[in-house]
Amino acid sequence: MANPVLVEVTRGNLVESRHRGMVVVVDGDGKVVFSAGDIDAGVFPRSACKAMQALPLIESGAADAHLFGNRELALACSSHSGEPAHARLAGTMLAAAGVDESVLECGAHWSFEQPVLINQARVLERPTALHNNCSGKHAGFICAACHTGKDLEGYVRYEHPVQAEIRGVMESLTGAALAVDNCGVDGCSIPTYAVPLKSLAHGFAKMATGVGLAPVRAKAARRLIDACMAEPFFVAGTNRACTRLMEAAPGRIFAKTGAEGVFCAAIPEQGIAIALKCEDGTTRAAESMVAATLARFFREEPAVHAALMAMANRSMSNWNGIHVGDIRVTDAFAA
Amino acid sequence: MANPVLVEVTRGNLVESRHRGMVVVVDGDGKVVFSAGDIDAGVFPRSACKAMQALPLIESGAADAHLFGNRELALACSSHSGEPAHARLAGTMLAAAGVDESVLECGAHWSFEQPVLINQARVLERPTALHNNCSGKHAGFICAACHTGKDLEGYVRYEHPVQAEIRGVMESLTGAALAVDNCGVDGCSIPTYAVPLKSLAHGFAKMATGVGLAPVRAKAARRLIDACMAEPFFVAGTNRACTRLMEAAPGRIFAKTGAEGVFCAAIPEQGIAIALKCEDGTTRAAESMVAATLARFFREEPAVHAALMAMANRSMSNWNGIHVGDIRVTDAFAA
Fold it and tell me: Given phi > 0 = left and psi -120 to 50 = alpha, else beta, which region is B228?
C-alpha cells in the first residue's frame, strides 16, 4: 500500500505537489505512540543519526580529555552550514587532537545555504573539508580515534575500527543488524545502514530516556542530546530547520535532519522520540512533517505549539514577495 | 489510486527514495500513445509552457520587426541559468523595444546553478531582473506589448491585456478553460493555470505538428520550437537538462522544464508531444522521466537512445567522487 500523503504544496487554490512519507513516535520501551505509513520499512538515517555516531567521542574519554563543551559536542552531531564559526570550531577540535584538516576524509563542498555560499564564494577560492557539513562529526571521529590510539588512515571505511565501533553502537541502540547488505556510502564517505524506521526512533528514544542503556551510555547519550539542545546553531546554522525547531522550545526539543528527507527528533521530558522519512527524499516536506509531529506533543503549550505549526504550515512567496502558495501538512497529523 | 513510482533513487543495494508521477504522450490529434498515472489531473505547467506564452511575440510581428533570430526566440521560451550570455541577450531584446531592465516585473534572483551562482557572487553585489531565469520570456512579452502599443505597467497581472492574450492562446492550444479558479501566481509573478496533463501534451503536439492550427499560428509555433532546438543553450544553459536533451538529437527534440517537476517535450518529426509531472515536484525525477519517455521513440537509433537513457538512469557520486547510488527509471517505462 502506498504511504499516505503527509504534506501538500499549494498554488492558488489548488494542490500543486504532494509528498508521501512515514512517521513514527515511540517511547523508551519502543511502544508506538503515533504513526503513519510503513514504519517497518528500511530507511537510511543518513545524517539524522549523527548523535548516535558521536557516542564514542564521549565514551572513549576523548571529549573530557579535550574539555569539550556543548558547542564541540553539538558540532560532532551536526550537519552544519559551513558558516565561519562552524568551520573554525571543527578546526579547533582537530587541533585538540593534535592534527589538522588534512586528516579529514569527508571531502569538501560549498555550503548548501545560499547566503552562506555567496559569502564563501566572495572570500574563498574553493571550500575546504572544514566547510563540509559533516566536518564536526568527522572531527569527533578523529578525536576519539586519536585518544584511543587508532590509526586514522581510512577511518571512513566499513572495515576500519572507527566504523566497526560505530556499527556496534548503532546495532545496540536500534536493535537492527547492520552489515554489508544494508549498507550504503554516505555523502561524506562513511557507511550508512538502512534500518526499520521504528527501530531508528526506538534508538533515539533510548538515548533520550536512558531506558535499557548501561549507565555510562545513558549518561553519554543524554549529554549529547543536551549539548545539541543547548547549542542549536552548532547543530545546523542560521535559519536552518534543526536550529529553529530546537529554539522553539529551548532545552526541550532535540531535532536532527538527514539527507533524502529524513528527520529524527526527541522530547526527552516526555520520554519519546520521532523518526520519519519523506518517501521522495524532499527536505521541505520532512521539515513540515517533523514540526507537525513535534507539535502534537505541545498542545497544552500554545506558544510552542504555534511556533512549531508555523514551521509545519508555511507560506511561500515569489521573487517579488507575492504570496503564491503554502506548504501544509495533511489531516494525517490531526488524528 | 496512487500514481505509480516512476523513478527510484538507490544507495548501496537498496532503494532510498521513490518518485511517483504521471506521463502522457499524445499525437497531433490528441490520441494517447503512451501514459502512466493520472493524466487527467490538473497540473500547473509553470515554465514548461513558455513556448506557448511566446507565440504573441511572433504573431504580433514584433519578432520580425526586431529581426530576432533563433537565439532571441529561444531565450523568450527559456528558463535560463542567468549566465552572462543569457542576461546580456535579455537586455538586448529589451533595448530593441526601446526600454531597459527597469520595466521587468519578474523580480531578481541568484542563479539556481551553483557554478553560475559562484561566478555571480564574485562579480555582482546582487543579481538584477536580467538574471531572473524568466527574463527572456518577460523580454518577449515586453517586445510584443510595445510593438502593439500596449501599456507595460502591470503586464504580469491576470487582467492585463498581455496576460489576457496569452490566456487566449493557451486556451486555444490546450482546449482547457483558463480562469481565476484554476489560476495561480508563478515565480516570476505572471499567472499560471492548472490544466489536465493530457491537454497540456496535446497543446504541444499541436505546436509541433500544426494539426488543428491556423496557418499563421502553425508557422509561429514551429518557428519557436525550431529556434529552441537550434539554440538549446539559450533555452536553459550549461549542463542543464533541457539543453542536454535537445543536444542529444540536434534539431529533433524539443524539451522544456517547469518548476515543481514538470516537463514538456516534443519530437516534431514523429508528430508527438510529451507532458509529465513528478507528483512531489522534484526536478531530478522529472528529468529522468522525460529522458526515458523520449528514449522510447528513438529505439531504432542506438546512439540517441543511449544518450537519453544515460540521462534517465544516472550514477550519483559523493564529494570524494565515490559512487554511492543511482537515479533510475522503473519498469513503467519498459512497456
Answer: alpha
Question: Are the Cβ atoms of A14 and B44 closer than 8 angstroms?
Answer: yes
Which residue type is seen at A171?
A: E
CATH number of the domain within which A255 lies: 3.40.710
- Give pLDDT, residue A335: 67
Residue (of A142, A135, A22) closest to A86 by Cα position? A135
In DSSP terms, B329 is beta-bridged to B7
- What percentage of chain B has pLDDT greater than the value 90? 99
Q: Indicate the helix (H) or strand (E) that contains A328.
A: strand A323-329
CB A308 within 8 A of CB A292: yes
Is the minimum CB–CB distance between A44 and chain B shorter than 8 Å?
yes
State the Cα–Cα distance between residues B117 and B83, nearest whole angstrom: 9
Domain enclosing residue B191, as ranges: 5-333
Q: What is the pLDDT of residue A334?
A: 84
Q: Which residues contact B260 (CB under 8 A, 6 or more apart)?
A: A9, A11, A16, A17, B44, B46, B277, B278, B281
Contact: B182, A11; criterion CB under 8 Å? no
Model-level pTM? 0.98
Task: Give φ, ψ of B238 to 5 degrees.
Answer: -55, 125
Instruction: Quick: pLDDT tens for A254-299.
Output: 999 999 999 999 999 999 999 999 999 999 999 999 999 999 999 9
Q: What is the pLDDT of residues B268-304, one digit of tens each?
A: 999 999 999 999 999 999 999 999 999 999 999 999 9
CA atoms within 13 A on the CB side of A204: 32
Task: Assess B212–A contact: CB distance below 8 Å, yes or no.
Answer: no
Phi-psi map region of B276: left, alpha, beta (phi>0 left; psi -120 to 50 alpha):
beta
Residue B107, chain A, CB below 8 Å: the answer is yes
With a threshold of 0.95, tell me whether the complex ipTM lies above it: yes
What pLDDT is stored for residue B335 in this prediction? 67
Please tell me the total count of domains within chain B: 1
B121 vs A111, A117, A123, A130, B112, CA distance in Å? 13, 9, 10, 21, 12
Cβ proximity of A207 and A227 under 8 Å: no
With helix as H, strand as E and coil as C, how does B227-254 read? Answer: HHHHCHHHHCCCCCHHHHHHHCCCCCCE
Task: Tell me whether residues A44 and B279 touch, CB distance under 8 A.
Answer: no
Sole residue written with cell 519502543: A30
